[in-house]
Amino acid sequence: MKKQLEQMIQIALRELLDQQELVAMPAFIQIEASKEKKFGDFATNIALILARTSHHAPYTIAERIVARIPKSPLIDKIEICHPGFINFFLAPTAFQGLLTNILSEKSAYGCCKIGRAKKVLVEFVSAAPIKPLTQQHARLAIFGKTIAKLLDTVGFNVAVEYFIDNIGLAVDIFVVEVWGAYLLQLASLPIPTQHTLFTKEVANLLEQAVGKQFYQPNIDIAKLGANEHDSQTTVAYAQSVLDVRYDALKRIVTDIVVKRHQEELASLGVTFDYWISAQSLLDVNNLDKMLNRLAAKDVLFQAEGGYWFRSTQFGDERDRVLVRPSGDYTHLAYDLAYHLNKFERGFDLAIDIFDFNPVDYASGIQAGMQALGYDPEQLMPFYVQPAHVIRDGKHVNLSLNELQTIYPKDELYFQLLTKRACQPIELAFDAHSLNDHPLSYVQYAAVRIQTVFNELHARGMAFVEADGFVNVAHLVLDEERRLLNLLASYTETVVNAALQYEPHVIVHYLRTLAAEFHAYYNACPFLVDDYVQRSARLTLIKAVQQVLSNGCALLSISLPETM
Protein backbone atom coordinates (compact mmCIF):
# COMPACT_ATOMS: atom_id res chain seq x y z
CA MET A 1 0.00 0.00 0.00
CA LYS A 2 2.87 2.39 0.78
CA LYS A 3 4.21 1.90 -2.72
CA GLN A 4 0.83 2.82 -4.23
CA LEU A 5 0.63 5.94 -2.08
CA GLU A 6 4.16 6.88 -3.11
CA GLN A 7 3.20 6.57 -6.79
CA MET A 8 0.19 8.84 -6.23
CA ILE A 9 2.34 11.46 -4.52
CA GLN A 10 4.89 11.25 -7.35
CA ILE A 11 2.14 12.01 -9.88
CA ALA A 12 1.22 15.12 -7.89
CA LEU A 13 4.85 16.22 -7.57
CA ARG A 14 5.52 15.79 -11.30
CA GLU A 15 2.56 18.02 -12.06
CA LEU A 16 3.92 20.65 -9.66
CA LEU A 17 7.32 20.32 -11.34
CA ASP A 18 5.80 20.79 -14.80
CA GLN A 19 4.03 23.90 -13.54
CA GLN A 20 7.36 25.16 -12.12
CA GLU A 21 5.94 25.16 -8.60
CA LEU A 22 8.62 22.66 -7.62
CA VAL A 23 12.36 23.05 -8.17
CA ALA A 24 13.21 19.32 -8.37
CA MET A 25 11.75 15.92 -7.60
CA PRO A 26 12.77 14.63 -4.15
CA ALA A 27 15.03 11.58 -4.13
CA PHE A 28 12.90 9.83 -1.54
CA ILE A 29 9.33 10.03 -0.28
CA GLN A 30 8.94 8.86 3.30
CA ILE A 31 5.61 7.23 4.13
CA GLU A 32 5.02 5.80 7.58
CA ALA A 33 2.14 3.94 9.20
CA SER A 34 0.32 6.26 11.60
CA LYS A 35 0.50 5.39 15.28
CA GLU A 36 -2.86 6.96 16.15
CA LYS A 37 -6.19 6.45 14.38
CA LYS A 38 -6.93 10.20 14.28
CA PHE A 39 -3.94 10.58 11.92
CA GLY A 40 -5.27 8.00 9.47
CA ASP A 41 -3.49 4.86 8.30
CA PHE A 42 -0.40 6.40 6.69
CA ALA A 43 1.30 9.79 6.74
CA THR A 44 4.05 11.58 4.84
CA ASN A 45 6.25 14.55 5.74
CA ILE A 46 7.14 15.30 2.11
CA ALA A 47 5.74 18.87 2.35
CA LEU A 48 8.06 19.64 5.28
CA ILE A 49 11.03 18.30 3.31
CA LEU A 50 10.19 20.39 0.23
CA ALA A 51 9.70 23.52 2.35
CA ARG A 52 13.43 23.55 3.10
CA THR A 53 14.15 24.63 -0.48
CA SER A 54 10.96 26.60 -1.06
CA HIS A 55 9.63 30.04 -0.17
CA HIS A 56 6.27 28.51 0.77
CA ALA A 57 5.08 27.20 4.11
CA PRO A 58 4.84 23.39 4.53
CA TYR A 59 1.06 23.59 4.93
CA THR A 60 0.71 25.47 1.63
CA ILE A 61 2.89 22.91 -0.16
CA ALA A 62 0.84 20.10 1.36
CA GLU A 63 -2.37 21.69 0.08
CA ARG A 64 -0.95 21.88 -3.46
CA ILE A 65 0.18 18.25 -3.34
CA VAL A 66 -3.17 16.98 -2.04
CA ALA A 67 -5.04 18.93 -4.73
CA ARG A 68 -3.13 17.01 -7.40
CA ILE A 69 -3.20 13.50 -5.94
CA PRO A 70 -5.37 11.43 -8.28
CA LYS A 71 -8.65 10.04 -6.99
CA SER A 72 -8.48 6.42 -5.90
CA PRO A 73 -11.04 3.94 -4.54
CA LEU A 74 -8.32 2.87 -2.10
CA ILE A 75 -8.39 6.21 -0.25
CA ASP A 76 -11.35 7.25 1.88
CA LYS A 77 -10.01 10.74 2.62
CA ILE A 78 -6.82 12.81 2.90
CA GLU A 79 -6.23 15.34 5.66
CA ILE A 80 -3.47 17.86 6.30
CA CYS A 81 -2.18 18.23 9.82
CA HIS A 82 -0.08 21.19 10.97
CA PRO A 83 2.62 22.05 10.20
CA GLY A 84 2.22 20.11 6.93
CA PHE A 85 1.84 16.37 7.42
CA ILE A 86 -0.38 14.64 4.88
CA ASN A 87 -2.51 11.87 6.43
CA PHE A 88 -4.15 9.14 4.37
CA PHE A 89 -7.30 7.37 5.54
CA LEU A 90 -7.70 4.17 3.54
CA ALA A 91 -11.00 2.77 2.36
CA PRO A 92 -11.78 -0.68 3.84
CA THR A 93 -11.59 -2.23 0.38
CA ALA A 94 -7.94 -1.14 0.13
CA PHE A 95 -7.03 -4.23 2.10
CA GLN A 96 -9.04 -6.69 0.02
CA GLY A 97 -6.18 -7.25 -2.41
CA LEU A 98 -3.74 -7.54 0.52
CA LEU A 99 -5.58 -10.43 2.15
CA THR A 100 -6.10 -12.07 -1.23
CA ASN A 101 -2.39 -11.89 -1.99
CA ILE A 102 -1.34 -13.25 1.40
CA LEU A 103 -3.66 -16.26 1.32
CA SER A 104 -3.12 -17.06 -2.36
CA GLU A 105 0.67 -16.67 -2.37
CA LYS A 106 1.00 -18.43 1.01
CA SER A 107 4.69 -19.16 1.74
CA ALA A 108 5.75 -17.03 -1.26
CA TYR A 109 4.17 -13.90 0.21
CA GLY A 110 6.95 -11.46 1.00
CA CYS A 111 9.26 -12.73 -1.73
CA CYS A 112 10.41 -10.40 -4.49
CA LYS A 113 13.06 -10.15 -7.22
CA ILE A 114 14.78 -6.94 -6.21
CA GLY A 115 18.13 -8.78 -6.12
CA ARG A 116 17.87 -9.56 -9.86
CA ALA A 117 19.63 -12.91 -9.37
CA LYS A 118 22.99 -11.28 -8.58
CA LYS A 119 25.40 -13.85 -7.17
CA VAL A 120 26.23 -13.40 -3.50
CA LEU A 121 28.63 -15.48 -1.40
CA VAL A 122 28.06 -15.32 2.36
CA GLU A 123 31.00 -16.58 4.42
CA PHE A 124 30.53 -17.15 8.14
CA VAL A 125 31.77 -19.07 11.19
CA SER A 126 35.12 -19.96 9.49
CA ALA A 127 36.68 -21.16 12.74
CA ALA A 128 40.23 -22.46 12.91
CA PRO A 129 40.20 -26.24 13.53
CA ILE A 130 41.84 -25.97 16.95
CA LYS A 131 38.95 -25.48 19.39
CA PRO A 132 35.36 -26.60 19.94
CA LEU A 133 32.57 -24.38 18.63
CA THR A 134 30.98 -22.16 21.28
CA GLN A 135 27.97 -19.88 21.78
CA GLN A 136 29.78 -17.20 19.77
CA HIS A 137 30.01 -19.55 16.80
CA ALA A 138 26.31 -20.29 17.28
CA ARG A 139 25.55 -16.59 16.87
CA LEU A 140 27.78 -16.35 13.80
CA ALA A 141 26.14 -19.42 12.27
CA ILE A 142 22.58 -18.28 12.89
CA PHE A 143 23.25 -14.71 11.79
CA GLY A 144 25.01 -15.86 8.60
CA LYS A 145 22.35 -18.40 7.70
CA THR A 146 19.56 -15.85 8.21
CA ILE A 147 21.31 -13.19 6.14
CA ALA A 148 21.58 -15.74 3.33
CA LYS A 149 17.89 -16.64 3.59
CA LEU A 150 16.82 -13.00 3.57
CA LEU A 151 18.89 -12.24 0.47
CA ASP A 152 17.53 -15.33 -1.26
CA THR A 153 13.97 -14.23 -0.42
CA VAL A 154 14.42 -10.86 -2.13
CA GLY A 155 15.84 -12.33 -5.30
CA PHE A 156 19.61 -12.76 -4.94
CA ASN A 157 21.36 -15.95 -6.02
CA VAL A 158 22.98 -16.87 -2.71
CA ALA A 159 25.62 -19.43 -1.72
CA VAL A 160 27.14 -19.94 1.72
CA GLU A 161 30.74 -20.87 2.44
CA TYR A 162 32.97 -21.90 5.35
CA PHE A 163 36.65 -20.96 5.24
CA ILE A 164 38.84 -23.49 7.08
CA ASP A 165 41.67 -21.47 8.59
CA ASN A 166 44.14 -24.37 8.70
CA ILE A 167 47.39 -22.41 8.46
CA GLY A 168 49.52 -20.60 11.02
CA LEU A 169 51.44 -21.36 14.18
CA ALA A 170 48.29 -21.81 16.32
CA VAL A 171 47.19 -24.73 14.15
CA ASP A 172 50.64 -26.35 14.32
CA ILE A 173 50.72 -25.97 18.11
CA PHE A 174 47.34 -27.67 18.40
CA VAL A 175 48.41 -30.53 16.11
CA VAL A 176 51.52 -31.11 18.25
CA GLU A 177 49.46 -31.03 21.46
CA VAL A 178 47.09 -33.64 20.02
CA TRP A 179 50.03 -35.77 18.91
CA GLY A 180 51.55 -35.57 22.41
CA ALA A 181 48.27 -36.64 24.03
CA TYR A 182 47.95 -39.42 21.43
CA LEU A 183 51.44 -40.75 22.27
CA LEU A 184 50.74 -40.70 26.01
CA GLN A 185 47.44 -42.45 25.39
CA LEU A 186 49.14 -45.24 23.41
CA ALA A 187 51.76 -45.61 26.14
CA SER A 188 49.02 -45.79 28.80
CA LEU A 189 50.56 -42.79 30.54
CA PRO A 190 48.58 -40.01 32.26
CA ILE A 191 47.85 -37.00 30.10
CA PRO A 192 48.93 -33.74 31.82
CA THR A 193 46.17 -31.42 33.00
CA GLN A 194 47.55 -28.71 30.71
CA HIS A 195 45.87 -30.53 27.83
CA THR A 196 42.26 -29.48 27.35
CA LEU A 197 39.39 -31.94 27.24
CA PHE A 198 39.00 -31.07 23.56
CA THR A 199 42.65 -31.98 22.87
CA LYS A 200 42.14 -35.34 24.58
CA GLU A 201 38.95 -36.02 22.62
CA VAL A 202 40.69 -35.29 19.31
CA ALA A 203 43.65 -37.47 20.34
CA ASN A 204 41.23 -40.32 21.01
CA LEU A 205 39.59 -39.84 17.61
CA LEU A 206 43.05 -39.78 16.02
CA GLU A 207 43.87 -43.14 17.57
CA GLN A 208 40.56 -44.56 16.36
CA ALA A 209 41.26 -43.30 12.84
CA VAL A 210 44.95 -44.31 12.41
CA GLY A 211 45.81 -46.74 15.19
CA LYS A 212 49.56 -46.59 15.86
CA GLN A 213 50.46 -45.03 12.52
CA PHE A 214 52.02 -41.98 14.20
CA TYR A 215 53.40 -43.78 17.25
CA GLN A 216 56.99 -42.82 17.88
CA PRO A 217 58.97 -44.80 20.51
CA ASN A 218 61.82 -43.29 22.48
CA ILE A 219 60.59 -39.74 22.01
CA ASP A 220 61.04 -37.05 24.65
CA ILE A 221 57.35 -36.24 25.13
CA ALA A 222 58.25 -33.44 27.51
CA LYS A 223 59.53 -31.52 24.50
CA LEU A 224 56.00 -31.49 23.09
CA GLY A 225 54.74 -29.42 26.00
CA ALA A 226 54.32 -25.82 24.85
CA ASN A 227 54.39 -24.65 28.47
CA GLU A 228 58.00 -25.80 28.86
CA HIS A 229 59.37 -24.75 25.51
CA ASP A 230 59.00 -22.00 22.99
CA SER A 231 56.03 -22.81 20.74
CA GLN A 232 58.01 -22.60 17.51
CA THR A 233 60.73 -24.82 19.00
CA THR A 234 58.11 -27.35 20.05
CA VAL A 235 56.59 -27.47 16.57
CA ALA A 236 60.03 -27.69 14.95
CA TYR A 237 60.92 -30.64 17.19
CA ALA A 238 57.73 -32.51 16.21
CA GLN A 239 58.36 -31.79 12.53
CA SER A 240 61.94 -33.06 12.77
CA VAL A 241 60.81 -36.30 14.43
CA LEU A 242 57.95 -37.02 12.06
CA ASP A 243 59.70 -35.63 8.97
CA VAL A 244 57.50 -36.13 5.90
CA ARG A 245 54.74 -37.70 8.02
CA TYR A 246 54.06 -34.41 9.80
CA ASP A 247 51.96 -32.99 6.96
CA ALA A 248 49.83 -36.15 6.92
CA LEU A 249 49.33 -35.90 10.70
CA LYS A 250 48.33 -32.25 10.41
CA ARG A 251 45.84 -33.01 7.63
CA ILE A 252 44.23 -35.88 9.57
CA VAL A 253 43.97 -33.92 12.83
CA THR A 254 42.43 -30.87 11.16
CA ASP A 255 40.07 -33.10 9.16
CA ILE A 256 38.89 -34.68 12.42
CA VAL A 257 38.11 -31.27 13.91
CA VAL A 258 36.48 -29.96 10.73
CA LYS A 259 34.23 -33.03 10.58
CA ARG A 260 33.25 -32.46 14.18
CA HIS A 261 32.48 -28.80 13.43
CA GLN A 262 30.38 -29.87 10.45
CA GLU A 263 28.35 -32.26 12.59
CA GLU A 264 27.81 -29.70 15.35
CA LEU A 265 26.68 -27.04 12.89
CA ALA A 266 24.39 -29.51 11.13
CA SER A 267 22.75 -30.28 14.49
CA LEU A 268 22.03 -26.54 14.65
CA GLY A 269 20.49 -26.68 11.19
CA VAL A 270 23.39 -24.90 9.51
CA THR A 271 25.03 -26.37 6.40
CA PHE A 272 27.26 -24.88 3.73
CA ASP A 273 27.43 -25.06 -0.04
CA TYR A 274 31.23 -24.85 -0.03
CA TRP A 275 34.07 -25.63 2.36
CA ILE A 276 37.39 -24.14 1.29
CA SER A 277 40.67 -24.29 3.20
CA ALA A 278 43.53 -21.84 3.44
CA GLN A 279 45.90 -24.68 2.54
CA SER A 280 44.03 -25.31 -0.71
CA LEU A 281 44.73 -21.74 -1.79
CA LEU A 282 48.43 -22.50 -1.51
CA ASP A 283 48.09 -25.83 -3.26
CA VAL A 284 46.52 -24.28 -6.37
CA ASN A 285 48.92 -21.30 -6.39
CA ASN A 286 46.23 -18.69 -5.76
CA LEU A 287 48.62 -16.77 -3.53
CA ASP A 288 51.27 -16.48 -6.26
CA LYS A 289 48.58 -15.36 -8.71
CA MET A 290 47.44 -12.65 -6.31
CA LEU A 291 50.99 -11.45 -5.62
CA ASN A 292 51.86 -11.38 -9.32
CA ARG A 293 48.80 -9.25 -10.07
CA LEU A 294 49.75 -6.79 -7.35
CA ALA A 295 53.34 -6.69 -8.62
CA ALA A 296 52.09 -6.03 -12.16
CA LYS A 297 50.19 -3.00 -10.83
CA ASP A 298 53.36 -1.77 -9.09
CA VAL A 299 51.80 -1.87 -5.62
CA LEU A 300 54.06 -4.60 -4.21
CA PHE A 301 57.44 -3.67 -2.77
CA GLN A 302 60.25 -5.24 -0.75
CA ALA A 303 61.12 -3.97 2.73
CA GLU A 304 62.59 -5.40 5.93
CA GLY A 305 63.24 -8.69 4.16
CA GLY A 306 59.60 -9.26 3.18
CA TYR A 307 57.04 -8.21 0.57
CA TRP A 308 54.61 -5.40 1.31
CA PHE A 309 51.40 -4.12 -0.29
CA ARG A 310 51.07 -0.35 -0.83
CA SER A 311 47.56 -0.34 0.59
CA THR A 312 47.78 3.35 1.57
CA GLN A 313 47.34 4.14 -2.13
CA PHE A 314 43.81 2.74 -1.78
CA GLY A 315 42.65 4.55 1.34
CA ASP A 316 44.14 2.24 3.94
CA GLU A 317 45.83 3.80 6.97
CA ARG A 318 49.07 1.82 6.57
CA ASP A 319 50.87 -0.47 4.17
CA ARG A 320 50.55 -4.21 4.81
CA VAL A 321 53.07 -7.03 4.88
CA LEU A 322 52.04 -10.02 2.75
CA VAL A 323 55.19 -12.19 2.85
CA ARG A 324 57.35 -12.29 5.98
CA PRO A 325 61.19 -12.45 5.83
CA SER A 326 60.88 -16.18 6.61
CA GLY A 327 58.93 -16.62 3.37
CA ASP A 328 55.67 -17.36 5.20
CA TYR A 329 52.50 -15.71 3.93
CA THR A 330 50.54 -13.51 6.33
CA HIS A 331 46.85 -14.04 7.01
CA LEU A 332 46.08 -10.97 4.91
CA ALA A 333 47.85 -12.60 1.94
CA TYR A 334 45.65 -15.65 2.32
CA ASP A 335 42.55 -13.48 2.63
CA LEU A 336 43.39 -11.49 -0.50
CA ALA A 337 43.98 -14.69 -2.45
CA TYR A 338 40.76 -16.11 -1.02
CA HIS A 339 38.67 -13.09 -2.01
CA LEU A 340 40.23 -12.99 -5.45
CA ASN A 341 39.14 -16.61 -5.73
CA LYS A 342 35.60 -15.65 -4.68
CA PHE A 343 35.21 -13.06 -7.40
CA GLU A 344 36.90 -15.22 -10.04
CA ARG A 345 34.20 -17.81 -9.31
CA GLY A 346 31.69 -15.26 -10.57
CA PHE A 347 30.25 -13.80 -7.36
CA ASP A 348 29.11 -10.18 -7.55
CA LEU A 349 29.15 -9.59 -3.81
CA ALA A 350 31.11 -11.19 -0.97
CA ILE A 351 29.72 -10.88 2.56
CA ASP A 352 32.19 -11.66 5.36
CA ILE A 353 30.83 -12.25 8.85
CA PHE A 354 33.67 -11.92 11.35
CA ASP A 355 33.85 -12.89 15.01
CA PHE A 356 36.46 -10.23 15.72
CA ASN A 357 36.70 -6.50 15.14
CA PRO A 358 37.66 -6.16 11.45
CA VAL A 359 37.61 -2.35 11.21
CA ASP A 360 41.34 -2.17 10.58
CA TYR A 361 41.83 -5.62 9.09
CA ALA A 362 38.88 -5.42 6.72
CA SER A 363 40.17 -2.13 5.32
CA GLY A 364 43.30 -4.02 4.22
CA ILE A 365 41.19 -6.59 2.38
CA GLN A 366 39.09 -3.89 0.72
CA ALA A 367 42.21 -2.00 -0.35
CA GLY A 368 43.60 -5.21 -1.80
CA MET A 369 40.43 -5.92 -3.75
CA GLN A 370 40.50 -2.42 -5.18
CA ALA A 371 44.14 -2.87 -6.20
CA LEU A 372 43.19 -6.15 -7.86
CA GLY A 373 40.56 -4.39 -9.96
CA TYR A 374 37.37 -4.85 -7.96
CA ASP A 375 35.00 -2.31 -6.44
CA PRO A 376 35.65 -2.33 -2.66
CA GLU A 377 31.88 -2.13 -2.15
CA GLN A 378 31.66 -5.65 -3.55
CA LEU A 379 33.02 -6.74 -0.18
CA MET A 380 30.74 -6.33 2.85
CA PRO A 381 32.45 -7.10 6.18
CA PHE A 382 30.37 -7.50 9.36
CA TYR A 383 31.56 -7.76 12.92
CA VAL A 384 29.30 -9.82 15.17
CA GLN A 385 29.58 -8.96 18.85
CA PRO A 386 29.83 -11.79 21.38
CA ALA A 387 26.97 -13.86 22.73
CA HIS A 388 27.37 -14.21 26.49
CA VAL A 389 25.81 -16.92 28.62
CA ILE A 390 25.12 -15.65 32.14
CA ARG A 391 25.09 -18.04 35.09
CA ASP A 392 24.84 -16.72 38.64
CA GLY A 393 25.76 -13.27 37.36
CA LYS A 394 28.94 -14.44 35.63
CA HIS A 395 29.89 -15.19 32.03
CA VAL A 396 30.35 -18.86 31.23
CA ASN A 397 31.70 -20.36 28.03
CA LEU A 398 29.69 -23.23 26.59
CA SER A 399 30.32 -25.52 23.68
CA LEU A 400 27.75 -25.52 20.91
CA ASN A 401 26.47 -28.91 22.06
CA GLU A 402 26.15 -27.73 25.67
CA LEU A 403 24.30 -24.63 24.54
CA GLN A 404 21.70 -26.71 22.72
CA THR A 405 20.96 -28.70 25.87
CA ILE A 406 19.89 -25.44 27.52
CA TYR A 407 18.05 -23.77 24.64
CA PRO A 408 15.86 -25.57 22.09
CA LYS A 409 16.96 -24.80 18.54
CA ASP A 410 13.99 -22.54 17.70
CA GLU A 411 14.41 -20.50 20.88
CA LEU A 412 18.17 -20.21 20.30
CA TYR A 413 17.64 -18.86 16.77
CA PHE A 414 15.11 -16.31 17.98
CA GLN A 415 17.20 -15.10 20.92
CA LEU A 416 20.42 -14.79 18.91
CA LEU A 417 18.63 -12.67 16.30
CA THR A 418 16.98 -10.19 18.66
CA LYS A 419 19.68 -7.55 18.29
CA ARG A 420 21.89 -5.97 15.66
CA ALA A 421 25.15 -7.75 14.95
CA CYS A 422 27.04 -4.84 16.50
CA GLN A 423 25.31 -5.35 19.85
CA PRO A 424 26.29 -8.07 22.36
CA ILE A 425 23.64 -10.56 23.42
CA GLU A 426 23.17 -12.16 26.82
CA LEU A 427 21.52 -15.54 27.33
CA ALA A 428 20.37 -16.71 30.74
CA PHE A 429 21.80 -20.09 31.73
CA ASP A 430 18.74 -20.79 33.89
CA ALA A 431 15.80 -19.52 31.84
CA HIS A 432 12.51 -19.48 33.75
CA SER A 433 10.49 -16.33 32.99
CA LEU A 434 8.62 -15.44 29.80
CA ASN A 435 11.27 -12.79 29.18
CA ASP A 436 13.80 -15.61 28.91
CA HIS A 437 11.69 -17.25 26.17
CA PRO A 438 10.39 -14.41 23.95
CA LEU A 439 9.64 -16.78 21.07
CA SER A 440 6.82 -18.38 23.03
CA TYR A 441 4.85 -15.13 22.77
CA VAL A 442 5.01 -15.34 18.97
CA GLN A 443 4.32 -19.08 18.88
CA TYR A 444 1.35 -18.65 21.19
CA ALA A 445 -0.25 -16.27 18.70
CA ALA A 446 -0.06 -18.93 15.97
CA VAL A 447 -1.43 -21.57 18.38
CA ARG A 448 -4.34 -19.33 19.34
CA ILE A 449 -5.25 -18.84 15.68
CA GLN A 450 -5.11 -22.57 15.03
CA THR A 451 -7.31 -23.14 18.11
CA VAL A 452 -9.93 -20.78 16.68
CA PHE A 453 -10.09 -22.77 13.44
CA ASN A 454 -10.18 -26.06 15.34
CA GLU A 455 -13.14 -24.75 17.32
CA LEU A 456 -14.75 -23.54 14.08
CA HIS A 457 -14.66 -27.06 12.66
CA ALA A 458 -15.79 -28.59 15.96
CA ARG A 459 -18.91 -26.39 15.89
CA GLY A 460 -19.60 -27.24 12.26
CA MET A 461 -19.52 -23.58 11.25
CA ALA A 462 -18.74 -22.57 7.69
CA PHE A 463 -15.81 -20.49 6.49
CA VAL A 464 -15.05 -19.57 2.88
CA GLU A 465 -11.98 -17.43 2.21
CA ALA A 466 -13.57 -15.83 -0.84
CA ASP A 467 -16.42 -14.54 1.31
CA GLY A 468 -13.90 -13.08 3.73
CA PHE A 469 -12.26 -11.14 0.90
CA VAL A 470 -15.61 -9.70 -0.15
CA ASN A 471 -16.52 -8.74 3.41
CA VAL A 472 -13.21 -7.07 4.30
CA ALA A 473 -15.03 -3.72 4.54
CA HIS A 474 -16.41 -4.91 7.86
CA LEU A 475 -12.95 -4.86 9.42
CA VAL A 476 -13.27 -1.41 10.99
CA LEU A 477 -12.12 -1.91 14.59
CA ASP A 478 -8.90 -0.21 15.66
CA GLU A 479 -7.34 -3.61 16.37
CA GLU A 480 -8.28 -4.81 12.88
CA ARG A 481 -6.87 -1.76 11.12
CA ARG A 482 -3.60 -2.02 13.03
CA LEU A 483 -3.27 -5.66 12.02
CA LEU A 484 -4.07 -4.85 8.38
CA ASN A 485 -1.45 -2.10 8.32
CA LEU A 486 1.13 -4.45 9.83
CA LEU A 487 0.37 -7.13 7.25
CA ALA A 488 0.69 -4.54 4.49
CA SER A 489 4.19 -3.63 5.70
CA TYR A 490 5.54 -7.20 5.76
CA THR A 491 7.11 -7.29 2.30
CA GLU A 492 8.77 -3.92 2.80
CA THR A 493 10.05 -5.10 6.19
CA VAL A 494 11.64 -8.17 4.59
CA VAL A 495 13.31 -6.06 1.88
CA ASN A 496 14.68 -3.61 4.44
CA ALA A 497 15.97 -6.42 6.66
CA ALA A 498 17.71 -8.04 3.69
CA LEU A 499 19.27 -4.95 2.16
CA GLN A 500 20.36 -3.57 5.54
CA TYR A 501 21.61 -7.01 6.69
CA GLU A 502 19.51 -6.72 9.85
CA PRO A 503 17.55 -9.90 10.65
CA HIS A 504 16.58 -8.48 14.03
CA VAL A 505 14.04 -6.35 12.12
CA ILE A 506 12.07 -9.52 11.36
CA VAL A 507 12.19 -10.56 15.02
CA HIS A 508 10.78 -7.21 16.12
CA TYR A 509 8.13 -7.32 13.39
CA LEU A 510 6.95 -10.77 14.52
CA ARG A 511 6.79 -9.68 18.15
CA THR A 512 4.74 -6.61 17.18
CA LEU A 513 2.41 -8.66 14.98
CA ALA A 514 1.93 -11.20 17.77
CA ALA A 515 1.23 -8.45 20.29
CA GLU A 516 -1.38 -6.84 18.04
CA PHE A 517 -3.03 -10.20 17.44
CA HIS A 518 -3.20 -10.97 21.18
CA ALA A 519 -4.83 -7.56 21.71
CA TYR A 520 -7.35 -8.37 18.96
CA TYR A 521 -7.99 -11.84 20.39
CA ASN A 522 -8.74 -10.36 23.81
CA ALA A 523 -10.88 -7.53 22.41
CA CYS A 524 -13.50 -9.37 20.39
CA PRO A 525 -14.81 -12.85 19.49
CA PHE A 526 -14.18 -14.41 16.09
CA LEU A 527 -16.80 -17.17 15.94
CA VAL A 528 -19.81 -14.83 15.98
CA ASP A 529 -23.22 -15.75 14.58
CA ASP A 530 -23.09 -13.03 11.93
CA TYR A 531 -21.59 -14.89 8.95
CA VAL A 532 -20.39 -11.73 7.20
CA GLN A 533 -18.53 -10.50 10.28
CA ARG A 534 -17.22 -13.97 11.05
CA SER A 535 -15.84 -14.58 7.56
CA ALA A 536 -14.07 -11.20 7.54
CA ARG A 537 -12.43 -11.76 10.92
CA LEU A 538 -11.42 -15.33 10.17
CA THR A 539 -9.86 -14.24 6.88
CA LEU A 540 -7.87 -11.59 8.73
CA ILE A 541 -6.50 -13.95 11.40
CA LYS A 542 -5.74 -16.60 8.77
CA ALA A 543 -3.63 -13.99 6.98
CA VAL A 544 -1.91 -13.18 10.30
CA GLN A 545 -1.19 -16.89 10.76
CA GLN A 546 0.34 -17.08 7.27
CA VAL A 547 2.59 -14.06 7.80
CA LEU A 548 3.69 -15.35 11.21
CA SER A 549 4.60 -18.61 9.50
CA ASN A 550 6.48 -16.85 6.69
CA GLY A 551 8.41 -14.61 9.06
CA CYS A 552 9.38 -17.50 11.33
CA ALA A 553 10.47 -19.54 8.29
CA LEU A 554 12.84 -16.70 7.37
CA LEU A 555 14.41 -17.16 10.81
CA SER A 556 14.42 -20.98 10.46
CA ILE A 557 11.89 -21.24 13.30
CA SER A 558 8.92 -23.60 13.42
CA LEU A 559 5.44 -22.80 14.70
CA PRO A 560 3.70 -25.48 16.80
CA GLU A 561 -0.02 -26.17 16.53
CA THR A 562 -0.34 -26.70 20.28
CA MET A 563 1.55 -25.50 23.35
Descriptive tags:
four-stranded antiparallel beta sheet; five-stranded parallel beta sheet; flat; alpha/beta; 13% strand; 50% helix; 563 residues; 21 helices
Could you give a short account of the major beta sheet? 5 strands, parallel
Strand content: 5-15%
Cross-sheet strand order for the largest sheet: 7-6-5-11-12
What fraction, in percent, of the residue positions are helical?
40-55%
Q: Which value, in Å, is the CA radius of gyration? A: 30 Å
Please tell me the overall pLDDT. Answer: 91
- Compute the separation of the termini in Å: 35 Å
**Structural shape:** flat
Class by SSE composition: alpha/beta
- pLDDT below 50 for ≥5 consecutive residues: which ranges? none
Care to count the β-strands? 15
Number of helices: 21
